Amino acid sequence: MKQDITKLASSNDISQFLYNIYNKLYEFWGPQHWWPAETKFEMVIGAILAQNISWNSVEKAICNLKRANILSIEGILQTSDEKLAELIKPAGYYNQKTKRLKEFCNFLKREFNSDLEKLFALDISSLRQVLLSQKGIGFETADSIILYGAEKPIFVVDSYTKRLFYRLGLIESEKISYNDLQAIIMANLTPQTKFFNEFHALIVKHCKEICKSKKPICNKCCLRLICNYFNE
Fold this sequence. Notes:
The protein is 60% helix and 0% strand. It is built from 13 helices and no strands. The chain has helices at residues 11-29, 40-49, 55-67, 73-77, 81-87, 94-112, 116-120, 124-132, 139-149, 159-168, 178-187, 193-209, 228-231.
């Protein structure tokens, strides 16, 4: 474990700390039922659309695709760029995301015969490498697809994760790299898909509602007794 990026001395300390956080969040918020999607393909499309935008906006775009009856590989590929961009406009960056959706659907059709399950049958390392090779898919999007779509145990890191773990005192800085923080977490938790799913969803919920970026509501926080930010 890199001592310059985590404040806790031993692996046992980190493991206990993480499980304690999860238990407190779960007791406070309950199950989150994330990712909200009717199919795995819808989940993947949602992950691509969710880049740099709120989930409420993504939901509007997904509803538009469903209403137009094109939420499928062929549906997206056969729709003109102009029409697709208009449908996903609520998700922002719609021209760029139109290209990303079509590129990904073309990739699935070309490399996996339009069978998402064939892609998801790859082991985690291979699947991650393949996803990251696609233009516009970064670590967070790839890992979200692996965890919530392929249902394989990988921990998704985002700005909420960095904020929470910095304030709680697990890491030295919110500027920690994605892979460094992921490595800390995964080295100290038993890899379980459902658990990783719930933990990440709880972190997002907590940071949106309580541990906000500018004005955290510390007096209502279930983690305040173990939080450096609150105690200092």
